[in-house]
Amino acid sequence: MKRIVLTGFRGTGKTEIGKALSARLNSVFIDTDDLIESRTGRSIPDIFHYEGEERFRSIEREVMASLPSSDVIVSTGGGVVCDPKNMEHLRQNSTVILLVADIETIEQRLLKKPRPPLTSLPLHEEIAEMMDRRRRNYYASSDLCFDTTETSAVAAAEKITTLLSKGVSGQVQRDTALAFFNTGRLPPIPLKKITELLSDPGRDPLTRIMGVAGYPCAHSRSPNLFNALFDHYQLNYHYTWFEDPELDEIMEVARAIDAKGLSVTIPFKHDVIEYLDEIDEHAAQEIGAVNTVVFACGTAIGYNTDWLGVRKPLISLKGSRAVLLGAGGVAAGAAYALMDLGMEVTILNRTSKNAQKLAERFGCAWGTWDEFDRIKPDLVVNATPLGMQPDTRNPLREDQLSKDMTVFDLVYTPPVTPLIEAARAKGCPTITGLEMFIEQAREQFYLFFGIDVPAEKVRELVQ
Ligand code: NAP
Fold first, then answer.
1. Is the preceding omega at residue 418 within 30 degrees of 0, hence cis?
2. What Rg, from alpha-carbon coordinates, does the chain have?
């Protein structure tokens, strides 16, 4: 039997349900808090009091890494999901079930069996505050979600056993999805895989499907990258192409098969917002575009990781004078990232009214392309498709480049664009679009699974 891991806030029933599941499935039960206490010979409050939280987290990490890899049911501490290293260990070859309950139920359970407080807040507020703080980590940690509010431990164990043997989506939903994928758009190999996952009687009902939503998106590198990462981290997922001109269709299918999440690309980054229950503050209020959707516990949450993909490679250039070329979808995330790094930003665009519109949203300067020479920037970021295969144009003339100017081309096909080639010839520090792709993909993976993938691992897999 695969390892079953129960996560969730204190009072959601992890220990009681874990024991009941262990009795039903006739397998060993491990409570990681008990394991920490027996290994250290100290209670958890004592470890916190005498050795500090850092020490507790380090012991917790060692314990997570040492758990048996199969035939076991593991109940975890409420904060375990916040550490990406723990998630890397816990998720490996496991089914992670997130237990949730409403605040009142948790409060009643904790009043009956008090535990040391986590904050100085009254209990009800503490639960609300901590659950809210950790909620996205809980979602990222989970393969399945189960609400324990009105269920006894024994009844919950029975329902979870059914869930484990049948999966979430029924035959009708799988048929809907199969019709969607079976349109002849997908190449034969992924289509065969998705057909097996949806219709094969011997399929694993717990294999979750996710993918990239766009039109067109068959060129996307994300399926290869994510599937390789699933193999590497032993995650029971398959990532495919959700390519359709109608976003309505894509979202319907994603929900029907209980997809774990979607990477969203052109032309849906803005329109997808109306399908979501929640959006993070960067994606919604500021950038106005979502490139990552996480489905968990009946909610769909939108995030934007594009801006982080631009921000990360530029951290050491805080405060630069920057020119951003282009004012389209990716430029919005780039402008947000540059402003976040305290840069003096001018947006230059072919159509000046689009530059003005974007600049006014973020408080940047703006202008047309021919103003470039006047600005003398320390940094140029290309957010236009110029130089993207099969286009071979360079957005800047050679005499506009100088060796003290950092050049970041967001275009990543080809890996070395005409702009990057010219900038290198001039001696400029350069950053390729692959760096953005790598960083935004790492952020997505963290939002989907709670695991921090090293940049070198992603680079190795996409090159
Ligand atoms: P978009 O929304 O279509 O915007 C394109 C921008 O480029 C617009 O401002 C447009 O100006 C300008 N533009 C288009 N053709 C031009 C031309 N011939 N001359 C001058 N300006 C031109 O595209 P997007 O979604 O922002 O994507 C831009 C590029 O980012 C893509 O081509 C892709 O290579 C790159 N990208 C990279 C990553 C990564 O991970 N590295 C991810 C996504 C996208 P107007 O306002 O005048 O139309």
1. no
2. 24
Burial class (CB in 10 A: 0-12, 13-18, 19+), 231: exposed
By alpha-carbon position, which residue is closest to atom 33 of ligand 1?
411
Write the DSSP symbol of residue 286. Answer: I
- The predicted model scores a pTM of 0.94
**Which DSSP helix (H) or strand (E) runs through 211?**
strand 208-214
Q: Which of 341, 339, 342 is nearest to 364 (CA)?
A: 339
Q: Whose CA is nearest to atom 3 of ligand 1?
A: 328
8 A C-beta contact, residue 341 and residue 319: yes
Residue nearest to atom 46 of ligand 1 (CA): 351
3 state SS of 122: coil
- Under 8 Å between Cβ of 126 and 118: yes
Q: Answer yes or no: is the C-beta of 386 below 6 A from any ligand 1 atom.
A: yes
Give catalytic status of residue 260 as yes or no. Answer: no
- Do residues 341 and 318 touch, judged by C-beta distance below 8 A? yes
Which residue among 14, 166, 192, 269 is the active-site one?
Answer: 269
Ligand 1 atom at minimal distance to the Cα of residue 440: 40
Q: What percentage of the chain exceeds 70 in pLDDT?
A: 100
C-alpha 361, offset from chain centre: 26
Question: What is the identity of the amino acid at 450?
Answer: G
Residue ranges with strand state E in 25-82:
28-31, 72-75
What would the pLDDT profile of 80-123 be if each residue is shown by its tens digit? 999 999 999 999 999 999 999 999 999 999 998 877 788 899 99
What is the arithmetic mean of pLDDT over 381-402?
A: 96
Cα 123 to the center of its chain, rounded Å: 31
Helix runs in 113-150, H state only: 123-141
